[in-house]
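Sequence and structure are no longer studied apart. As an example, we show below a sequence and the tokens encoding its fold:
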Amino acid sequence: MRVSEKLALIDKIGRELQSRFSYADIDIFLAEFDVQTSQISINSKWAYAKHALQGHSGETLLRIARELELPQGTSAIAENTPPQNWLGTTLFRLFISHISKDKLNATRLKECLAPYGIAGFVAHEDIHPTLEWQDEIMRGLNTMDAMVAIHTAGFSQSTYTQQEVGFALGRGIKIVSFEMGEQPTGFISRHQSLPRRSRTAEDVAKEINGLLLADSRTHERLSAAKPTKKDSDDDIPF
């Protein structure tokens, strides 16, 4: 989020808090987001709130804006808002594209990627029931570092998964095509896919980690997430 966008959002939050709460209630509200008020004497709740919010991250400001149900303001702010499960994370953000009937496979892969410093996004697991699911998916697509597409039978026939892949292609994002019963189609078919064979989820996660580290588009970001190497004796398959 640009500095100008942060300033505009701080101003909106300050005015909203001014209209809703007393000074004491502002203190209580902001404390829920780990924002400490200075208790200085400012004869304006708007200025008081703005002073407390300065220096905080864009993600914190966006969380507060969501809680207050404020309009996002600009498209750039909305595009930079991660989904709920990625808020505040410094881990590598991997969008796991899959069809709904295979959500357990996607969730299993997400769990096995976690030891490598990779935070997976599985739409059918990570979207809170009270959140608009299409908005959360768009936030995931806009803020992902890479995508893994799980090509199970029916993946190529799903409008949503094809749009997700197209979105990643449009952003120039690294896509790992994991072949699990269906071959990749369309523009990503020209790239070599990762076949399932008899490998466990742990094996596949390890190889995905290696592919991301080997790609210049994702190496630096994943390395910065400081993945933890972890050997596992768990041979539970998908």
Observations:
- Residues 3-79 form one domain.
- The chain has eleven helices and five strands.
- Residues 21 and 45 are 9 Å apart (CA to CA).
